[in-house]
Amino acid sequence: MLQVCLNGARVRAECAHLPVTPAELATSARASVAAGARDIHLHPKNRDGEDTLDPAAVAAAVTAVRAAAPGVRVGVTTGAWTAPDPTERAAQVRSWTVLPDHASVNWHEDGAATVAAALLDRGIGVEAGIFSGTYAAERFLQWPDRHRVLRVLAEITDVDPRTAVHAAAGLLGELGAATESAVLLHGEDDAAWAVLGLAASLGLDMRIGLEDVLRLPDGTPAGSNADLVRAARALTR
User: Domain coordinates of the chain in residue numbers?
Assistant: First the structure.
């Protein structure tokens, strides 16, 4: 499965064509699915272009993307930068009026289990974000409800393509057979393509999009999320 990550915590200053508004997210999602994406991850933004879990912003983004890509699962972030207090993030999840299909929870962040429990209580799938170079894997594997997550996001933070694949192997080994869920392996920036190739070779779920990387495999700037998806399909075909 190839997931497209439409925008992430990036801002327009990093990428002039970053989709930010619900309409822009919808247009990008439609093109990305046409290019071969089979799942969508996005960060709802407020009027200042900052990530938010505000119910109105989540509803607007998810509704617009669902209309543009019917039948495709749509997920959002619950990153701690949206609200440092995990009880506040959990409360926001409980106040959502339009529910995404899934949401990512970063296990190196304090209160991850609290946020995940709020999502599960509402019937929202949990993507457990496990960052390399952190204690996230150990913390996640000690969580008694780990078997209930939709998938594990093995997130490689090493951006050097020469060493990121080794970091990925180490993280996958750390997770081992202890996780009963599907694993989506992805990298970021300069290492994104090397990690994507490794994920494909191992038969794992993959992810690509402007959240993770702004350049195509040949180093040229990506014009859109759809361009990145097409390049990923060509690379892993």
Answer: 2-236
Give dist(CA 135, CA 140) in Å, integer.
9
> What separation in angstroms does the CA of 172 have from each of 188, 220, 232?
17, 30, 21
HEC secondary structure over the chain: CEEEECCCCCCCCCCCCCCCCHHHHHHHHHHHHHHCCCEEEECCECCCCCECCCHHHHHHHHHHHHHHCCCCEEEEECCHHHCCCHHHHHHHHHHCCCCCCEEEEECCCCCHHHHHHHHHHCCCEEEEEEECCCCHHHHHHCCCCHHHCCEEEEECCCCCHHHHHHHHHHHHHHHHHHCCCEEEEECCHHHHHHHHHHHHHHCCEEEECCCCCCECCCCCECCCHHHHHHHHHHHHC
Task: Say whether pTM exceeds 0.85.
Answer: yes
Model pLDDT for residues 21-49, shown as the tens digit of each residue? 999 999 999 999 999 999 999 999 999 99
* pLDDT per position as a tens digit, 75-86: 999 999 999 999
Question: Using CB atoms within 10 A of its CB, is residue 88 exposed (0-12), middle (13-18) or buried (19+)?
Answer: middle
Q: What are phi and psi of 231, to 5 degrees?
A: -65, -40
End-to-end CA distance of the chain: 12
Report whether CATH 3.20.20.70 matches the domain 2-236. yes
Instruction: Return d(Cα 25, Cα 18) in angstroms, integer.
Output: 9
